[in-house]
Amino acid sequence: MAITQIKIVQDYIRMCTDGWEQGWHERNGGNVTYRMRPEEVEQCRPFFSAPGEWNPMGVTGANLAGEYFLTTGSGKYFRNIALDPLHSIGIVEINAAGDAWRIVWGLAGGAKPTSEFPSHYMNHCVRAAATGGAYRVIYHAHPANLIAMTYVLPLTARDFTRALWQSATECPVVFPGGVGVVPWMVPGGAEIALATSELMKEFDAAVWAHHGLFCSGPDFDTTFGLMHTIEKSAQIWVLAQSASGGKLRQTIRDDELRAIAREFGVTLNEKFLDP
Ligand code: 13P
Ligand code: ZN
Fold first, then answer.
1. pLDDT tens digits for the chain (275 residues)?
2. Catalytic positions
3. Positive or negative: CA dihedral 148, 241, 163, 34
4. Which atom from ligand 1 is nearest to the alpha carbon of 142?
């Protein structure tokens, strides 16, 4: 028996490989974290090594103190994760104060959790609190069409939400709350972590201008599906803008967005619709 035979580890690796195959993870781009259930921690515990040193995160989230996370490694390539999980991913434990991690499995050879771990951790704290503990996955990727949009549209939640809702009919059903937008910031630290988690109080997804997208969800399917849906919609937006020279002939109207929401039983974030 190897840790890679445990279902949650297999599902996590599959999500990473699926993202690589979509072209969202050039080089070491992107990162995934999963907040483990207690029974999954117990399944993996026989494979734990002597814990490493505590490493301060620069942010504090008390509500997930003591929890365990699967994480991708900083500088690690998604295309290698399935071939070499021991060096590419790991499990970290959070300390009792909720402000530091230590490695208990994987990240072999001196690797560390993703440089975006502070953003992931704060997003987990906020999404877990907002969903009664249901949300467990935070996913960051570099999908090209969504990034391209951040050079064209004003960097507001309203502009991005409306453009994405209008670019594919199922979008308002998949993310009825809309998406948040973080202006360009230096990645990898506490400042962008706090800015992102502030938006994650309201949204399941946050765009990072000129960089990528953060998605959250209860499981791998939903979270990967959200990333996939948003990027597909962004691709349609870019194609339609390009083909029309920026002059669309028609789009989905606000009363039609409301009609979709009624039919599918979701509540749209009304502040993004015109009265
Ligand atoms: P890491 O290799 O540290 O995960 O960084 C990749 C990335 O996408 C930074 O935003
Ligand atoms: Zn990134």
1. 899 999 999 999 999 999 999 999 999 999 999 999 999 999 999 999 999 899 999 999 999 999 999 999 999 999 999 999 999 999 999 999 999 999 999 999 999 999 999 999 999 999 999 999 999 999 999 999 999 999 999 999 999 999 999 999 999 999 999 999 999 999 999 999 999 999 999 999 999 999 999 999 999 999 999 999 999 999 999 999 999 999 999 999 999 999 999 999 999 999 999 99
2. 116
3. negative
4. 8
Closest ligand 1 atom, residue 76 Cα: 2
Residue 30 CA: nearest ligand 1 atom is 8
DSSP-assigned beta bridge partners for residue 151:
none
Ligand nearest to C-alpha 72? 1
Instruction: Indicate if ligand 1 lies below 6 Å from the C-beta of 115.
Output: yes
Q: What is the pTM of this model?
A: 0.98
51 lines ligand 1 (CB under 6 A): no
- Is the CB of 29 within 6 Å of ligand 1? yes
**28 CB under 6 A from ligand 1?**
yes
DSSP sequence for 43-71: HHGGG--S----EE-SS--GGGTT-EEEE
